[in-house]
Amino acid sequence: MSKQLEETNCVDKEDTLKKNKSSKSRRETAVQGTNDCSIVSKCSMSQQGYYEDPYLQAFVVRVTRRAPLIHRGYYVRAKACEYTVERFLSTNPGPKQIISLGAGFDSSYFRLKAKNLLKETVLFEIDFPELVKRKHALIKQRTDMLEMIGPINIHHPAMSPHIELSGSHYKLLGVDLSQTNTVEAVLRLCGADLDTPTLLMSECVLTYMTRRCSSALVKWASETFTNVAFVLYEQINPNDTFGLFMQNHYITIGSPLKCINHFPTLISQVERFIKLGWEKVRALDLNQFYSSVLESSERGSC
């Protein structure tokens, strides 16, 4: 009877483990679905003339036209990201690197490469393994994009199954961001230099992680790189009318915003980063960026 109980307990544990893995897989799939929705909105915004990026189309199977309000929001978001990246590139002479955390189908490498802004710069993109495989497959359909990447370095799968694509200046890596030890190991394997000026980008990514995992990632970054800036774009103000609507939307699609209520304001985000080891922290919302940073000619675009 004791043996039967032990066997039953083992089966129960295995079933629980399988259920947990299945639940985790569903959550990851839902988060990856937000990438698909976002890239369609970005592509629609670009096609309507708000923002020039001909490479977005490569990652969209079927373009759906979004509403003007969506276009305006994505335009200001795109300009904010562009501003921070191009400022980093222009103020750091010599070798440098950009690491995009949860990059999704972002087309920044190709857009910046076309503008000749990536001299002496390596751009690393990290996201779920399944998603980066999809991205790689789409890139392979575009000869012009493959030419922009240049010769591909071959890494033996046994050395790192996480390296999906590795060019001289563009690295596409499949790693769960909650596994910071693996993230660091794969970056090092691909040639990342922890002392080189580095820009970490996170565009609507940390909010889908648990508070513990997202904070661990922010802390890891502050402790690992010696010359680094971290740019975070994330939702705030969860309790106003739009914030409540937004939260409900993400719950409905199975991808709730896990951190927004822990860090609901600009001040709380600043305090978060300082607590996790960052010395200088500045925060703006998009309204402030629109009114105080964008040129008047750029504001006219929306």
Automatic annotation (TrEMBL):
Residues 1-18 have a biased composition (Basic and acidic residues). It catalyses: [phosphatase 2A protein]-C-terminal L-leucine + S-adenosyl-L-methionine = [phosphatase 2A protein]-C-terminal L-leucine methyl ester + S-adenosyl-L-homocysteine. Pfam families: LCM. InterPro entries: LCMT1, Ppm1/Ppm2/Tcmp, SAM-dependent_MTases_sf. GO terms for molecular function: protein C-terminal leucine carboxyl O-methyltransferase activity; tRNA methyltransferase activity. Residues 1-29 are annotated as: Disordered. Its EC number is 2.1.1.233. Signal peptide: none annotated. It is an enzyme of class 2 (transferase). S-adenosyl-L-methionine binds at R77, G102, D176, L177, E203. SUPFAM superfamilies: S-adenosyl-L-methionine-dependent methyltransferases. Keywords: Methyltransferase, S-adenosyl-L-methionine, Transferase. One of its GO terms (biological process) is wybutosine biosynthetic process. PANTHER family: TRNA WYBUTOSINE-SYNTHESIZING PROTEIN 4. Methylates the carboxyl group of the C-terminal leucine residue of protein phosphatase 2A catalytic subunits to form alpha-leucine ester residues. Belongs to the methyltransferase superfamily. LCMT family. This is Leucine carboxyl methyltransferase 1.
